[in-house]
Amino acid sequence: MKSKEDYLSGQVLLIDKPLNWTSFQAVNKLRWEIRQAFKIKKIKVGHAGTLDPLATGLLIICTGKMTKQINTFQGQIKEYTGTIVLGSTTPSFDLETEIDQTFETSHITEDDIHNTTQKFIGDITQYPPVFSAIKKDGKRLYEFARAGESVDIPSRVVTINAFEITSINGNNINFRVVCSKGTYIRTLASDFGKALHNGAHLSALRRTKIGDFNVDDAISPEDFIHTLNN
């Protein structure tokens, strides 16, 4: 069992973020629980890389002096698994928004799907989704999007180390991606659909690795709270 001094001097916590939680909610919940458990007035707690609310998986949370290592963890290679739905698009590139277009997919073969992944290996240019937390002119992009305002979004170069299709079930394409910091898997899903001259969006996403850290070694927020109080 960790002590008050352990958390203040610095811990790296591997948390399996639940669906519909924001990364900030996870940080705030753990900070509050640590403060309550040890009667601490103030403690630094932060996460090393945001996960969207509709994504689950590995969230590195640092406490105390280990928060100085957050930038190091953020820069490490990440691995994700998930599902791309072919034949329909959404404004947010995932299930946060409703489907706005549908496409015929019967002509697309499994070979087409597997071969198209090769177009994304290496350094690629992405435009972050307009429904994202990136700031422009002091506002989050999703604030512009929800207000119906158009905004110019600068592109960024990211690196895709691996992009493989693990299974295909109708229009549901399951995948594994290994990529650099700053990669938007939602954008990858959308661009994948465009590369097939079709449409696509992300329906599920799970972060499985950050550098040498694996989600298999992570625990739920509830289990972490249980260890604090026992």
Relevant CATH superfamily of the largest domain? Pseudouridine synthase
Number of strands: 13
Percentage of helical residues? 25-40%
Shape: elongated
Strand percent estimate: 25-35%
- Structural class assignment: alpha+beta
Regarding quaternary structure, what we see is single chain
Whole-number total of structural domains: 2
Gyration radius, in Å? 19 Å
Structural description of this entry:
The protein is elongated and about 60 Å long. The protein has 230 residues and is an alpha+beta fold. The strands form three sheets. Strands 1, 2, 3, 4, 7, 10, 11, 12 and 13 form a nine-stranded mixed β-sheet that branches. Strands 5-6 form a two-stranded antiparallel ribbon. Strands 8-9 form a two-stranded antiparallel ribbon. It has two domains: 4-75 and 214-228, Pseudouridine synthase (2-Layer Sandwich), CATH 3.30.2350.10; 78-210, 2-Layer Sandwich (Pseudouridine synthase), CATH 3.30.2350.10. It has seven helices and 13 strands.
